[in-house]
Amino acid sequence: EVGEILRPFIRIDRDGSVSIAENSGLEKSRSFRSCTLVFGFSPGQVLSPFGGLNEFLSALVMAELFEGVIPDPDLLLTVACIEATIPFRRADDAGQAPAERLHQRLLSTVQEMELDLDEDDVEWAVMHAVAFANRDVRNFAEENVGRFLDNTWKLLPETNPQLRFAGVYTIRSYRVAVQKMRGFLTTLDPSSVFQKYESVPPPAEYKRLLDLTRRNLEAAGAYLGIKFLTAVILEALAQLTGGDAPVALFMGELTNPENGADAPAQLADHLPPPAAEDDRRLDSTVYSLLEKGRASATGFDLQNAPLSLYVYRSIGPDHLDEAIGAATAMCGDGGDPEAFLRKLPPEMVKAIAGAASEMVRTRRQALQDVAASL
């Protein structure tokens, strides 16, 4: 149904890219015209998934369905709210924030379409659009880091479809998913998450949102760094003993709390206590996230991370960045899994390889050989 609504307005190329159709007849559609003006898009433009593709098509479907039902001025202002939800945008080269650019486009649209709205109405609309957009990303300012991470984690299967098949997805596909999410969050500018326009939100509230966002991004970056490092360790062991394999083969099937005593064995069950120094040197927030877990469980990963916690306690904060750097290098072209493992604490790698040998019976001898060689 949605496809039929959009069909006249877009073109989908063989490579999957989506662009706005070039058809002079489309100008007769007031809904189409209002959406392109508010978004600042034009016929023939390729729509980026990260630059408004979803938001523009959503607004266009809404405008098409409600044209003639909702008055044009109100419909235009609702389109503006959806445009404001295009996330993570910065000021342009002229120093104009996204909300300021939206304000200018709305004024032009009102004039071109001869709508009964004045400048005060447009000002009011942009403030509401900013408030609406900020609610859309409110999770970034969660007081509880675990809840922020929880919603972030739930996005992984959306952008990595292979994770939807629990028990089947491979170590490499899991590593790639975590690596991509870590890369995104660690490079995200906190000031691009929440918008500000005039008095919305108030200065004190805006500062609170930014401070919480910055804290949550830092904690998530550290958590994902450890999860990424752990995944690369497993990937290296897999490569040395027969190649990539399902995560469940090495880690064990996901534990269902309802199973009780019948819950399947996990790799972490075979790990010795880590030869760690005083755990007080570890970041308490990250430690808690790994030990107790995110706010809720998912269908593709354990809620807590006992193996990652073992890695964190074994390596410690002083050498963590160095280890993550080595893991990143191993994932590049020509990465040497054995050379990577030799850069890590040998007792930790031997313990993980030994624990894996208890889980993967078909590779037991090969994993024991790797442990012995280290």
Describe this structure in words.
With 374 residues, the protein is an all-alpha fold. The protein has helices at 2-6, 30-39, 53-66, 72-84, 98-112, 119-136, 145-154, 156-159, 171-187, 203-240, 247-251, 284-292, 306-315, 320-330, 337-341, 346-359, 364-373, and strands spanning 10-12, 18-20, 46-47. The protein has a 3-stranded antiparallel β-sheet with strand order 1-2-3, with no helix packed on it. The longest helix is centred in the middle third of the chain and has 38 residues, at 203-240. The N and C termini lie far apart (59 Å).
Major beta-sheet overview: 3 strands, antiparallel
Instruction: Figure out the total of helices.
Output: 17
Structural class category: mainly alpha
Query: How many beta-strand elements?
Result: 3
Instruction: List the secondary-structure elements in sequence, H or E.
Output: HEEHEHHHHHHHHHHHHHHH
Low-confidence region ranges: none
Rg, please?
25 Å
Strand content: under 5%
Q: How would you write the strand order of the largest sheet?
A: 1-2-3
Helix content: 55-70%
Distance between the first and last residues' Cα: 59 Å
Shape: elongated
Average pLDDT confidence is: 89
